[in-house]
User: Fold these one by one.
Assistant:
Number 1:
Amino acid sequence: MSDVAITRSDTDSKARYAARVEGIAEEGELTISKVTPTLIIADHTYVPDSMRGLGVARQLADRLIADARAAGQRIVPLCPYVRARAMKHRDDWADVIQW
């Protein structure tokens, strides 16, 4: 697994996690919509072909979960990738996933 640097940028109603890997020009992303201060929607995860197999999507989802826990938020996993990870980790993520 490569060293992935993840940053987050926010607006009032949205947020975007960007993943960068040294030596790769493109970036991966995970986007969310803010419904209320305690409810967010995981909208979309994208990892370019140049990052495939490096664990970037998993690290983006793990960061989303960690941030939601820290903020006391629940996540509606509309994004197919986040939904699949949530189902795989149903017990571990039960405190933050809103089915």
Number 2:
Amino acid sequence: MAYLDTREGFAGAAPVFASSIPAVFERQEWEIIVLARHDGLASLQEPGRLARAMAWLFGGTIDRRLASPRLEALRRLAVLAWHHGYQAPVSAMKAFKAEGFSADQLELLLASVATSRSQLASR
């Protein structure tokens, strides 16, 4: 199992524009963005009846949603950005803004994820 040390900042997944644009996300929000890279698109859907039954029978968790609606909107957009880049659905962007995030934060999230995706692809 991999270990992500978040005490010293993010290597490779940190906001690329940190020197030119002030950080507008809190540390916890950056952690959610980085960890969303490992969430699949299925984590955005409600667990079905069978999945709930299997989790009940065999134990385990099936619901990846965060308790805070604000942070969940951030996680959902980050998951979509990791999978689709700038082509994330407009509905996710609207939900992101509805939770109080700004257009600058939206831009920063999409640009940082896109840059990190291209760095990971070139490895």
Number 3:
Amino acid sequence: MAGGRGSAAVAVVACVLLAHQAAEAAVFTVGDRGGWGMGAGSWANGKKFKAGDVLVFKYDSSAHNVVAVNAAGYKGCTTPGGARVYKSGSDRVTLARGANYFICNFPGHCQAGMKIAVNAA
């Protein structure tokens, strides 16, 4: 029975730690009031992000999308095979530690600056 209590205690502590971490996560709307659009390229400048923070992309899904890409995809405005494509118009993406890259892969949009790079500590 003692092992059962110990396992339950560990589970409770793990749940409390996860809830605490989730409570600390910040939620950012990409582009602020303007949303995810052509002017959002410099939106992340000067902001501090942590792993677990959530980016909310709000946009017209008939005109844009959000693609999570690697550094090469960001630099070259290309969509690597297997890239996650979001297209709901109200997407929530949790940041991983390190560099996180996002583009719109509608023709010409990324090249026009519709891309962001976010570094999460």
Number 4:
Amino acid sequence: MHTVVLVEGLSDRAAVETLARRLGRDLDAEGVGIRAMGGGTSIGRGVVEHGPQGAGRRLTGLVDRREAGSVARALHRAGLLAEPAVERLAPAGFFVCGEDLEDELVRALGVPAVLEVVERAGETGLWRTFCSQPAHRDRDDASRLRRFLGTRAGRKIRYGTLLVEALPLGAVPRPLADLLDTVGPLPGG
């Protein structure tokens, strides 16, 4: 494996793998391994576990905005960033999502398309129940959808795949596109 992609969780890994597959890419054959670290603060552990870059090995990753500072500090400690600055993450191959990857996917698809995915997944009733709860009534649909995706064990992972399958290839969120471009150019890109 010449490239290790560090992502926060299993839903991120599912999204990256699904998009690569949709693009006709075989990441295993390309020497790319995706490691779900169990949260952004664990990416520092991943940097240590997978060793420094160089000698034909590259580290890259996808992180949520709230964890970007922690990741920058971890990369700095590992000698991969000259200074622990969030704005230095992208040139170092680590790409920052808005709130999280689900936020990026909801914005890229748009609320109506995401609700269609929820309907096809057979969860419209659960969605309506979720929206009627007092804690969620006053939120906008995009915020509710992001929260809904994380309310049941395995749902985020499932939707990491379903949302990317529904995504028009011309609307791939920038952090995801940049990540895949870093591990090899996107077809036609």
